[in-house]
Specification:
The chain is mainly α. About 60% of the residues lie in helices and about 5% in strands.
Length: about 550
Amino acid sequence: MVRILFFILLVLALALGFAWLADRPGELSLIWQGQRIEMSLMRAATILISLFAAILIAVWLIRAIWLSPHTVTRYFRARKRDRGYQALSTGLIAAGGGDAALARKMAGRARGLIRVDQEPLIHLLEAQTALIEGKYDEARKKFELMADDEETRELGLRGLYLEAKRLGANEAARQYAERAAEKAPHLSWATLATLDQRSQAGQWDEAIRLLDQSRTANVLDKKEGNRKKAVLLTARATSKLEADPKAARDDALAALKFDDRLVPAALVAAKALFREDNLRKGASVLEKIWKQEPHPEVARLYVRARGGDSAVDRLKRARRLETLRGNNAVSLATVAEAALEARELALAREKAEAAVRLAPSESIFLLLADIEEADTGDEGRIRHWMAQALRSPRDPAWTADGVTSPTWLPVSPVSGRLDAFEWKAPPSPLAGYTEGGRLSPDDAIRSLPPVAPDQPAIVKAPPAATKPEEGQPVLEAERPMPTPAPIKVPERKEPAAPPAKSEETAAEKEAAAPFFGRPPDDPGVRERVAEEGSKASFRLF
């Protein structure tokens, strides 16, 4: 565009110059070698410009002829380079599609048309082709060559890192990731890999420093960076809780500023504050996280914040949590546990049944079994609640990569990934599946058998009309209890002259004692049976 504009301006200037000369005619006289030459001014200007143009054309022709060998060579070189790049492009596409034969063919053609030192992508094509063909040693050598080249260092390090991870060489993978992170802090894969490696080693200070650098370079998303920073601070606070509670408190509170829904950070902060006898602030931290995430560990720590509290005091604190987050299964279960400890069994039963209606789980049904044992002691009702616990979903736990942990951990022990643990129900193919199926909470409460009378009664077999239909689930507590067989104790022979009470031997006392659960092959049983014959019979159970 600039050249066209310059050409137009030049033509316009020439036209204006000729027009100016045409308006001002004149004569031009020239004497050269004894000859006098006269012509008009317009004609002289035209001849001069034509001569200048002829000189330029002659110079261009001479230069073109002089440089023609180089021009021809450059043309064929460019044509060869274009063919090489076309082969390189086709080879990369074939490698991405998994066509090893075409990728290898195009790699050889590209290497023959393009110099490797001029185009390092040929190494990438050959490495990818070797990976497709299963030649991992050859691919690793290519990646090493790329790592030594400044232009392809990042690409080579990533290839070496992936190969080390595939082989399980975690130390080599860590070194490659650290080299890439040092040379190029903007690489997210290198930053995350190095972050995971340092977290696995417990190097929390180095991990936090690396994360700060990546956040400054905008490698990670702001939300993701804040979450990882909170997790790292919580992990460092957990490691310092026993030795330095003050530093642990500061790190945990700083973690809550980055993520106010991180339950482990709130727990560590509250524990550190409780150790400093700052119960008010520690309770405030727990209450704040409780309003957002009702968690059983938060409730347990909050209720037992003071070691010297009575069961009634703990019940009051549990009721406080219920007021902060009402109509919640965790809140109701917490109140039920505290009421059970305080021996307020009616309140405990009421809250536990309300919790099981909201979210039935294994622990709540087991809690109902404990309440039943403390309240009535009826074995049938206790077995009823325990049977419901077997049919209910499992309780949430800290789970990561299919592994559960009793406490929160910052790194997964399986994959080594940072912030992998989540509070959720662990995977179990057997959870909630039994022969009887799963009843709804209301059905489970309505099907609770009545309290058995204090005196034992002979349990008769149910009539045929009351038997459950075929295929209908029968609760364990609803099954008829077999009547125990009576125990017949052998008659004791009275001696003619009973000895004094102080003269009774241990053998005679043993003979007079009834048999409860003695095995049939016991020597004493065999001797007595042989001695008395048909006078006595034993029915053991």
